[in-house]
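It is worth pausing here to work through a concrete case rather than discussing structure prediction in the abstract. The textbook approach is simple: state the sequence, then state the predicted structure, then interpret. We follow exactly that order.
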Amino acid sequence: MNYIFFILILLSNLHSELQNCEQCHITKKWDYLKPNIKFEHSITGFNLGGTHAKIDCSKCHTFKITIKNKKECSDCHKNPHKNEILKQGNCHSCHKDTNWIEKTKKHEEFGNGFVLDGAHNNLHCSKCHKTSKYSDASHECISCHLKDYRKTKNPNHKNLKLLTDCISCHTPHTWNQGRFYQHETYFPILTGDHSGYSCITCHKNSSNYKDVTCTDCHKKNRTNKEHRKVSGYTFESSACISCHPRGK
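Step two, the predicted structure:
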């Protein structure tokens, strides 16, 4: 009887309209609830939004002598951050209730200054944070992209000893959109007639990128015709670069 009295008092305090117990309960047994109960849970101070709306009442409420409510996030969700990021267990300060991965707090707001942009934005935390201590993750590109660096042959990053700071050539959106901006110092490839070509189009020798081939694209018959009146002309790649250092 004390149990029933307690439930009635609780429901009465929650909402003035909840006077009829049969709105939620069936008469067979008190702790048998009707399916698809339309109960305005927000009046309890905890709004059931997102994935919480699909959870059965018994997942958070144990209907024993007294109703035991789980109000804190940590009552249901174990903290994977080992209290390093969040000491209060207040998950919704970073996470949305629609799903666990979707966040309300930006990555750079944690104090490391690393912006999750482009392809990085879709990665699971564990891809970069290998240990439970989240501050162990390196900010260096090569800490995650060493395999990409070593296997890339066009151009051969390893042989050329290119910078391991990937952002110097790549954007965070995709690995394949690399732009070697230093190349403009030697020969323009980002604009003009020679833009859009792959590195190996001109650099056939992956062990020596100073070795440039022009004659694969610029055919002899046409080139000879265009240089009929040019003194000392020879059909050689080195001659092309010597006379056309900017590709014009």
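Step three, interpretation. The longest strand covers residues 29-33. The chain has a mean pLDDT of 77.
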